[in-house]
Amino acid sequence: MVRRLVDTLAGDTLLCKRYGAVPTADAEPAVRAIEAEAFDAAVVGGGAAASVEEGIEALQLYSKDVSRRLLDFVKSRSAAAKAEPS
């Protein structure tokens, strides 16, 4: 999962075209933190899934949280880059 997310931030993706690519050296620690935080939030928020449906719901929440956090990360990097004096 982490490898794919790093590739998303550092590769030739729509996200990179819009907000700029993130160097792998910067993307990897950020992605590890994002993934861990989203996982912890899904586990705490969803607890142990008692059914397949609850497991699917927890996975959907985790996926949405990862996506939101990634988008927040690239937006903040982009804004910081634009704010830096040339």
Précis, in short:
With 86 residues, this protein is mostly helical. The chain is built from four helices and no strands. The radius of gyration is 15 Å and the shape is elongated.
Our Rg estimate from Cα atoms comes to 15 Å
**Would you state the CATH class?**
Mainly Alpha
Round the mean pLDDT to the nearest integer and report it: 89
Provide the succession of SSEs.
HHHH
Number of domains: 1
Class computed from helices, strands and strand pairing: mainly alpha
Overall geometry comes to elongated
User: Count the strands?
Assistant: 0
From the N-terminal CA to the C-terminal CA, the straight-line distance is 35 Å
Tell me the CATH architecture.
Answer: Orthogonal Bundle
Structure description:
The chain has 86 residues and is mostly helical. The protein has a single domain, classed as Orthogonal Bundle (Serum Albumin, Chain A, Domain 1), CATH 1.10.246. Helix content is 81%, strand content 0%. It is elongated and about 55 Å long. The model has no long low-confidence stretch (mean pLDDT 89). It comes from Hordeum vulgare subsp. vulgare. It is found in: Cytoplasm; Nucleus. Keywords: Cytoplasm, Nucleus. Its main location: cytoplasm.
